[in-house]
Design brief:
It is built from two helices and eight strands, in the order E-H-E-E-E-E-H-E-E-E. The strands form two sheets. Strands 1-4-3-2 form a four-stranded mixed sheet, with helices on one face. A four-stranded mixed sheet has the order 5-8-7-6, with helices on one face. A hairpin with a 2-residue loop joins strand 3 and strand 4. It is globular. The termini are far apart.
Length: 124
């Protein structure tokens, strides 16, 4: 038995706003099913699903995910170019080396979902 992937299903207060936010980060829309309130976004091998929850009270960090990437600095620089603030929803924190051997950046999307993205630090 082989697992192929695990894709989070995250709540979204507004699917159009969520879609625009993730497209700005470089994700592409895989599919939108308005009648079912469902959105799938993909970038390279990463896939995330969103389910429409318009009544949800967004709380920063209530939902979270970890995204492993090969080039964290390129992703961090791209997101920094969007001009997101350092706190609130949405927000962004640029890449930095962490004591656990990862270089990580993070963001909070318009729904309050906290995403941390990281790559192993190459001690070459």
């Amino acid at each position: 038995m082989e697992f192929q992937s695990l894709c989070p299903i995250l709540p979204a207060r507004d699917l159009d706003q969520t879609r625009a936010f993730y497209e700005a980060i470089g994700f592409e829309t895989e599919g939108v099913w308005e009648d079912y309130g469902y959105l799938i976004m993909r970038r390279d091998g990463a896939e995330v699903h969103f389910t429409h929850r318009p009544q949800m009270q967004a709380v920063a960090g209530e939902h979270a995910g970890y995204l492993r990437v090969r080039e964290i600095d390129a992703l961090s620089d791209h997101i920094a170019g969007l001009g997101l603030p350092g706190d609130g929803m949405p927000s962004f924190c640029a890449a930095a080396d962490m004591p656990w051997g990862m270089r990580e950046a993070s963001w909070i999307d318009p729904n309050g979902t906290f995403i941390r993205a990281g790559a192993f630090i190459d001690h070459g």
